[in-house]
């Protein structure tokens, strides 16, 4: 993905998809401990005992990471990595690889000059919604595995692994249950994807117009950080609703989850886990975009050889 006008990709769609999936998977492996911390913080609810409110178990990003590592072991921080990689192969590959083709479709074949920002946003939302519609089952399994904390002695785990989770959900809840939370997930993924890809595209385009800046690692780093920050600011409320719906089947609908969260935990609950979410998405975007740009160059070299 390049910042600028109505650009045509200089590598095949298959090459772009492979580059996107690889970059997304690499970023996932590097940052999933922060994602696990984010999910635990988002699922944490206030517990009222009599007239007192119990202190939360998890406090802050580093505190949550430390608590999980101490109580459950370091490996617990990578819970959900297998479905997480499944998700990135599908969702990451599709949403990123489709962005330029969809953006060019929206501006038209005869467009000359910079692509308007609103069409970049529209293209990002469209590809994000399409991709997660395919990948929702992988996201559901990832969240459920991450949400499972330390169990009491003798209590069996809900799922023994990712493949067991898929089969158990289908057997006990039906195939349709794999698309639990699809509403908020489409909203979340569409919004965050639009924020990430459109802002990366726009920031990169702006930086490249500044004298002395070129299409290099520094530009990719700055654009990636901007994309991550903007995505978290915009997407945190729907991300919290998505995580709660996927981790707790007691909610009847997206609206029910939103209303109960607002009523029981207050408006700031929608920004629970904001710091770990930014730490996760900010670092994820930097790693992903840096890897993507290098992977595209590698694939371009293979295809032109």
TrEMBL record:
PROSITE patterns: SOLCAR. Its main location: mitochondrion. InterPro entries: MCP, MCP_dom_sf, MCP_transmembrane, Mito_Metabolite_Transporter. It comes from the Eukaryota. It is found in: Mitochondrion inner membrane. Keywords: Membrane, Mitochondrion, Mitochondrion inner membrane, Repeat, Stress response, Transmembrane, Transmembrane helix, Transport. It is a multi-pass membrane protein. GO terms for molecular function: amino acid transmembrane transporter activity. Solcar repeats lie at residues 11-105, 115-206, 215-298. Pfam families: Mito_carr. GO terms for cellular component: mitochondrial inner membrane. Belongs to the mitochondrial carrier (TC 2.A.29) family. This is Uncoupling protein. It comes from Flemingia macrophylla.
């Amino acid at each position: 993905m390049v910042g600028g006008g109505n650009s045509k990709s200089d590598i095949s769609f298959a090459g772009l998809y492979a580059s996107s999936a690889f970059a997304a998977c690499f970023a996932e492996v590097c940052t999933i401990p922060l994602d696990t911390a984010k999910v635990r913080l988002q699922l944490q609810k206030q517990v009222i005992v009599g007239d007192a409110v119990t202190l939360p178990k998890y406090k802050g990003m580093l505190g949550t990471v430390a608590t999980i590592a101490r109580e459950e072991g370091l490996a617990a921080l990578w819970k959900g990595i297998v479905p997480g990689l499944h998700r990135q192969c599908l969702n990451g590959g599709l949403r990123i690889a489709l962005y330029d083709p969809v953006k060019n479709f929206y501006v038209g074949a005869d467009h000359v000059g910079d692509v308007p920002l609103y069409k970049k946003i529209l293209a990002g939302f469209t590809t994000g919604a399409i991709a997660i519609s395919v990948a929702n089952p992988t996201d559901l399994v990832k969240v459920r595995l991450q949400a499972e904390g330390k169990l009491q002695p003798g209590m069996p785990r809900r799922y023994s692994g990712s493949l067991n989770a898929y089969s158990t959900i289908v057997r006990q809840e039906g195939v349709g249950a794999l698309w639990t939370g699809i509403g908020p997930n489409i909203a979340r993924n569409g919004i965050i994807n639009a924020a990430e890809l459109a802002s990366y595209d726009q920031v990169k385009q702006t930086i490249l117009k500044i004298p002395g800046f070129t299409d290099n690692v520094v530009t990719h780093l700055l654009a990636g950080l901007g994309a991550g920050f903007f995505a978290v600011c915009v997407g945190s409320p729907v991300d919290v609703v998505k995580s709660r719906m996927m981790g707790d089947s007691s909610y009847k609908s997206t609206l029910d989850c939103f209303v109960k969260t607002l009523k029981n935990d207050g408006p700031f609950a929608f920004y629970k886990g904001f710091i770990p979410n930014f730490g996760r998405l900010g670092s994820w975007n930097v790693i992903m975009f840096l890897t993507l740009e290098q992977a595209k160059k590698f694939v371009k070299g293979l295809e032109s050889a």
